[in-house]
Each structure stands twice: as structure tokens, then as C-alpha cells.
């Protein structure tokens, strides 16, 4: 092998190791290799609208729970970045795994667009070597509002509430966000069990609803 060939091979090996280390787990990726955006950065006195995830211990635990379980139920409150974290977890799966699709569902289409926007931000805020390792079909600015597609066949899609919205998909992962505010959340859960082969995540603030009952294993009959 020529010297130039050996040098090129070593460079490819080093680049591969760098990519592997950057995406080896979700916590490493979100705290070291990408950034979120904060619409209130000026009011909060932040130096930039773009910052990495904070190094909070509960995020380590959250990602470990998502790794360990097919189905996760999350009760959240504001300012914990749980929606961002769940989007990041599934986006990383879609980005690094060929032909891996993930689905985000919320009550309204504009909120689903917001979650896909989170995924696009996380992709765009990566260093060049990661965007080059996991290229898109076209730049995020040219992708539809409700989708993010990778050249290797992975994708992120957003859909509004309703069990019928899930039936045309067979994704690896599914996030139902703000489940307490979705009247058909229970039917969506049943559809997800049939359609989703990997991770199923339901996340919402507490409140009287199917989600709150299901989260605490409460079964009600039709008269309750």
C-alpha cells in the first residue's frame, strides 16, 4: 500500500472513531455535539439562542430509562426540557440508523411542526463532521415542515392528534407529546403498540385524562 493510501486509511479510521464517540449515547451527543435553541434568550440574559443541553443528572437517568424500556411514561413540568430530550433521543436513532423512522405526535399540527423543528435544530447545530457522516436528502430549510429525511432512509415525521394518523406508518420510534391534551390518546397508544417496533414514549404534564389513569394503572369503566 502506498504511503498516501495508508495515510488516507488512518484518517478515515480516525474520523470513524470521532463520529462513533460523538454519537455513542444520547447524553454525550446533546451535551457535547449539538445545541438547542431558546426563544427567550434575550430576556433571560443568555449569551446566545443556541446552547448545548445542560449537564443535569436527571437527563442521564432519563436517557438510561429510554434505553432500557420499550415503553416509557413520563410526567413532566415546564423548564425540564423533556420534550427536547425525547426528540433528541429519537432523532439520534433516526440519524444514525439506516431506514429507521421516528414519529412525533401532538394534539395540533403546529405543535408537531415545533417538535420537528427541534429535530432540525439539533441536526443543524452539529459540527460539520457529523453532518457529513449522516447527510440529509436536502438541507433542513428545504425539507417539509413536518419531516426531516436522511439519505440512508431514516426519517423524522410529525403528525397531529388522532389514532387514524398513525396507521400509515410503521416507525421504529414514536413520541406522543402532551398526551393529557389529546382526546384520542388511548386509541393512539393501541395503534402505536401495533405499528411501532421499537420505542414508544408518552409524555405529558399531570392532569385528569386517559394518560394520567394509564400512567398510574387506573382502569375505569364507561360509567366513570
Short summary:
This protein is an alpha/beta fold. The chain has helices spanning about 5-20, 25-30, 55-70, 80-95, 110-125, 130-135, 185-195, 210-215; strands at about 35, 50, 70-75, 100-105, 145-150, 155-160, 175, 200-205.
Radius of gyration, in angstroms, nearest whole number:
19 Å
Mean residue pLDDT: 89
Tell me the CATH topology. Answer: Rossmann fold
Q: Write the element-wise H/E pattern from the N-terminal end onward.
A: HHEEHEHEHHEEEHEH
How far apart are the termini?
76 Å
Protein model, in words:
With 224 residues, the chain is of the alpha/beta class. The chain has a single domain, classed as Rossmann fold (3-Layer(aba) Sandwich). It is 42% helix and 14% strand. It is built from eight helices and eight strands. It has helices at 3-22, 26-32, 57-68, 82-96, 109-124, 128-133, 185-195, 210-215; strands at 36-37, 50-51, 71-75, 101-105, 147-149, 155-159, 173-177, 200-204. Strands 3-8-7-4-6-5 form a six-stranded mixed β-sheet, with helices on both faces. A two-stranded antiparallel ribbon has the order 1-2. 34% of the residues are buried. Residues 219-224 have low confidence and may be disordered.
Amino acid at each position: 500500500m502506498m504511503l498516501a493510501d495508508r495515510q488516507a486509511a488512518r484518517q478515515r479510521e480516525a474520523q470513524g472513531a470521532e463520529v462513533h464517540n460523538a454519537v455513542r449515547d444520547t447524553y454525550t451527543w446533546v451535551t457535547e455535539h449539538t445545541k438547542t435553541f431558546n426563544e427567550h434568550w434575550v430576556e433571560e440574559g443568555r449569551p446566545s439562542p443556541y446552547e448545548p443541553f445542560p449537564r443535569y443528572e436527571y437527563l442521564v437517568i432519563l436517557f438510561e430509562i429510554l434505553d432500557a424500556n420499550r415503553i416509557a411514561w413520563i410526567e413532566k413540568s415546564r423548564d425540564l426540557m423533556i420534550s427536547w430530550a425525547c426528540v433528541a433521543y429519537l432523532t439520534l436513532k433516526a440519524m444514525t440508523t439506516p431506514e429507521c423512522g421516528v414519529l412525533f405526535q401532538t394534539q395540533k399540527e403546529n405543535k408537531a411542526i415545533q417538535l420537528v423543528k427541534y429535530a432540525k435544530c439539533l441536526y443543524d447545530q452539529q459540527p460539520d463532521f457529523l453532518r457529513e457522516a449522516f447527510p440529509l436528502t436536502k438541507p433542513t430549510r428545504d425539507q417539509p415542515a413536518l419531516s426531516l429525511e436522511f439519505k440512508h432512509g431514516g426519517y423524522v415525521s410529525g403528525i397531529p392528534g388522532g389514532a387514524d394518523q398513525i396507521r400509515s406508518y410503521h416507525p421504529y420510534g414514536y413520541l406522543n407529546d402532551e398526551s393529557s391534551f389529546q382526546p384520542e390518546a388511548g386509541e393512539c397508544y393501541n395503534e402505536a403498540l401495533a405499528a411501532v417496533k421499537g420505542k414508544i414514549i408518552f409524555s405529558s404534564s399531570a392532569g385528569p385524562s386517559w394518560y394520567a389513569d394509564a400512567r398510574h394503572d387506573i382502569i375505569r369503566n364507561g360509567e366513570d
